[in-house]
Design brief:
There is one protein chain. This protein has five helices and six strands. It has one domain: Alpha-Beta Complex (Ribosomal Protein L13p, Chain: A). Helices cover 28% and strands 18% of the residues. By secondary structure, it is of the alpha/beta class. The strands form two sheets. Strands 5-2-1-6 form a four-stranded parallel beta sheet, covered by helices on one side.
Length: 144
């Protein structure tokens, strides 16, 4: 008897919406759980080479916490590509200016790089306050 591996088709994958309240939660722990949901690892049909994940809406990104001295010691770098174009910003400044960007950067680092990872990343919606425009999708609230 020949065993065949199940490979889901694009149309058979059901995409659901989840709502995550980041208030008082630790950045890395929330980000790893979100990345797992975006990849679809919580589903029995998970396939590494396919986008089987769900949509995630994160609210209250401004109220995320970090442990230790990460606020002052963690630095995010970006480069424009020009000589002398290196920019650096600490986590403390990033949370003050664009709090949703801290969660986005943490989740992006946990997703696969390439076309598949970019597709998964587009299903992440992050908002700094408690209000979001995705109530029509009826996101299911999950506690991480």
């Amino acid at each position: 008897m020949i065993q065949k591996t199940y490979y889901p088709s694009e149309g058979s994958i059901e995409k659901r919406w989840y709502l995550v309240d980041a208030e008082g939660k630790t950045l890395g722990r929330v980000a790893s759980r979100i990345a797992s949901i975006l990849r679809g690892k919580h589903k029995p049909i998970y396939t590494p080479g396919m986008d089987t994940g769900d949509f995630v809406v994160v609210v209250n990104a401004e109220k995320i916490r970090v442990t230790g001295k990460k606020l002052s010691d963690k630095v995010y770098y970006s480069h424009s590509g020009y000589p002398g174009g290196l920019k650096a910003i600490t986590l403390e400044k990033l949370l003050a200016q664009k709090p949703e960007e801290a969660i986005r950067k943490a989740v992006w680092g946990m997703l696969p790089k390439g076309r598949l990872g970019r597709r998964m990343y587009k299903k992440l919606k992050v908002y700094s306050g408690p209000v979001h425009p995705h109530s029509a999708q009826k996101p299911e609230k999950i506690d991480l």
